Amino acid sequence: MSDYWWRASVVPLVFLLFSLLFWAIFGALTAALFYVVFLLLYMFLHVRQLVALDYWLADPDKRIVPDGFGLWEEAFIRINRMMRQHREEHAQRVAALQHMEQAISALPEGVVILDETYHIEWCNPLAEQHFGVDCKRDIGQQITYLARQPEFVQYLALHDFNEPMVLRGTRQNGLSLSIKLIHYGNSKLLLISSDITHLERIETMRRDFVANVSHELRTPLTVVTGFVETLNDMPNLENGMARRALYLMSEQARHMERLVDDLLALSRLEDVRNALQEEILDMSVFLHTLYQEGQTLSAEKHVLRLELLSSSNLLGSRDELHSAFVNLISNAIRYTPQGGHILISWYAQGDQLVFSVQDSGIGIAQKHIPRLTERFYRVDRSRSRETGGTGLGLAIVKHIASRHQAQLEIVSEEGRGSTFRIVFPHSRCYSEIKEDGGVVN
Ligand code: ADP
């Protein structure tokens, strides 16, 4: 600073000396005039620098720093350096902020920053979907003005955010959301929303499943307990009546047994710890055995045929594939009236392998087909039960198919018959052990 004082004083001092010299030579008036002119000129030059500085400061980002002279030049260079530094710091802060915004935007949750009166200050794209707001347009709007579900408005009004709230069937997209509000900073609020639609659906499925199982078990249990009580109350029971009651009880007990077996099979298939026990199956031998089992099940009521059109073998679990194939064959037998035809075939389709069971049975109306693999879904409940069905067979087949990366395909026409196919990927095909395929009648 002292340097500035000294440098700023040099020029006026030099001119003062000249003025004193002029006084001695030309007199006091001339010297005084000379010095006044100098001071005016000196002041003009400084004011010009100030004007240039003022002009630049009005828009420092767009205008160039003025070229100063003397002391001004140095000051301008310093200001310029400060401005550059400031701009760099600003750019770094903007980049850090953008980075944070990108990270929050990528969160699998909706995030909205609210002020203490619930006005939106910022939100990420997922929050736009969850609450039907627009992150740019709706800044400054009160969130309850845009997301107006009464439960949500009430939750915000209560100011008690210890427990998250669940918002079901939001107006915008019917989602179920879990909503949390967290206080932070200076009376700001962070609203976090998670989409729990999928979890809710699973919970509903679980509830339905328990209800279905209970419902399925209730009828046989009522029959069994009813008969047991009747038999108990009748000391002089007739032999024929007792036999009939025992027959019905054993029928219902068997149904419960089948149901429990199928439920256990399903839970085993769903157990992620239960790895697939794979082996290469000689399909000719395997399918001949199944064909024999089919004959036994049909008890000569149907015409069963086996067609082996491919000699390729299959990599898979013997027990699981046996269960899936038998399920399809048994369904074909149960839903095909006496004298009907059932064709079991094994063939190649491109580089895939297909196991197919075709029947000339009662068929299935189109509207039922997409739901057949749901647990306990039956087109005709009483027919299924009469023939010993549990309503879980196709659910088991679908599970087994997907454990083998295979697809279950169903083609059916009501009154004309159905074809159930399991299409295996090429990766499960193994080159033939035998060359002789053929048709077995
Ligand atoms: P279910 O034990 O009742 O047979 P599934 O899961 O095996 O249960 O089959 C579900 C439903 O699909 C059956 O109740 C039946 O209505 C229908 N279905 C399955 N296979 C056939 C078929 N081959 N022909 C006609 N309907 C069938």
From TrEMBL:
Q: Where is the Histidine kinase domain?
A: 212-428
Q: Name one GO biological process term.
A: cellular response to phosphate starvation
Instruction: For this UniProt record, give its keywords in alphabetical order, as a comma-separated list.
Output: ATP-binding, Cell membrane, Kinase, Membrane, Nucleotide-binding, Phosphate transport, Phosphoprotein, Transferase, Transmembrane, Transmembrane helix, Transport, Two-component regulatory system
- Pfam families in the record: HATPase_c, HisKA, PAS_8, PhoR
Q: Which reaction does it catalyse?
A: ATP + protein L-histidine = ADP + protein N-phospho-L-histidine
- Coiled-coil residue spans: none
Describe its membrane topology. Multi-pass membrane protein
Q: What is its main location?
A: membrane
Q: Which top-level enzyme class is recorded in the Swiss-Prot or TrEMBL entry? A: transferase
Q: GO terms for molecular function, please?
A: ATP binding; phosphoprotein phosphatase activity; phosphorelay sensor kinase activity
- Quote a single Gene Ontology cellular component term: plasma membrane
Name the PROSITE patterns for this protein: HIS_KIN (PS50109)
Asked if Isomerase is a keyword of the record, the answer is no
Q: Transmembrane stretches, by residue range? A: 20-45
Annotated EC = 2.7.13.3
The record, for PANTHER family, names: PHOSPHATE REGULON SENSOR PROTEIN PHOR (PTHR45453)
The function of this protein is: Member of the two-component regulatory system PhoR/PhoB involved in the phosphate regulon genes expression. PhoR may function as a membrane-associated protein kinase that phosphorylates PhoB in response to environmental signals.
Q: Mind telling me what this protein is named?
A: Phosphate regulon sensor protein PhoR
